[in-house]
Design a protein that fits this description.
Blueprint (H helix, E strand, L loop, with lengths): L14 E4 L6 H8 L6 E3 L3 E2 L14 E2 L2 H9 L3 E7 L2 E6 H9 L3 E5 L2 H10 L4 E6 L2 H11 L4 H15 L7 E4 L3 H22 L2
Parallel strand pairs: 1-7, 1-8, 2-7, 3-4, 8-9
Antiparallel strand pairs: 3-6, 5-6
């Protein structure tokens, strides 16, 4: 199915924020969003069960595994990954929905999905959020509810993901939350201004 994403001339860029678990991607996004009314976080689709208090289409688009796989086969996803036994992905239709509303879509993704979007969306702006390795390990251990083996697995994954940061357009180190949020905001402001100038 052809999508308007690839031919989004004159529209705002797609922003992708990625990085290892524990880097604080979500926190930085929460701090930056209120500064940019034109930014909107894309809602991901998932096969995981809906939890109490979650709304379909607000927190996630909740799909059956069969429906998810059918949509993957029909190329309706920009990216999709397996994570802890469930499928997650970004529907092309979600990006189109946000752009029709005049918004710049912002995606928070694992590095694998972020690289997929970079390959498939011309002009996508990819940002890798990093933190010192010791700090990453401390955060992962602090919030872990899993066994020590699983924690070590997450730390090993985070260390590997740190080696991928050169694949992305920008790197923001989250050593101090306020400063990191300011750096991310400045970067978004520059990219939005550049997109506006390119199409004015």
């Amino acid at each position: 199915m052809a999508s308007s994403i690839a031919s989004a001339g004159g529209r705002k860029p797609v922003f992708v924020v990625t990085g290892p678990s524990g880097a604080g991607k979500g926190t930085l996004i929460e701090r930056v969003l209120p500064r940019f009314p034109e930014l909107a976080v894309a809602v991901s689709a998932t096969t995981r069960p809906q939890r109490d208090g979650e709304e379909d289409g607000v927190h996630y688009y909740f799909l059956t595994r069969a429906d998810f796989e059918r949509r993957v086969a029909a190329d309706e996803f920009l990216e999709s990954v397996n994570y802890v036994g469930n499928r997650y992905g970004t529907l092309r239709a979600e990006i189109d929905r946000l752009r029709r509303a005049g918004k710049a879509p912002l995606l928070e993704l694992e590095t694998e999905g972020a690289l997929e979007v970079k390959r498939r969306v011309p002009g996508a702006v990819t940002v890798f959020v990093t933190a010192p390795v010791g700090e990453l390990e401390r955060r992962l251990r602090e919030r872990a509810t899993e066994s020590s083996g699983e924690i070590e697995g997450r730390i090993a994954t985070a260390r590997h993901q740190l080696t991928e940061q050169g694949e992305f357009d920008h790197v923001v180190e989250n050593d101090d939350r306020e400063e990191a949020a300011d750096r991310l905001a400045a970067l978004i402001e520059r990219e939005l201004a550049a997109a506006t100038m390119a199409h004015s």
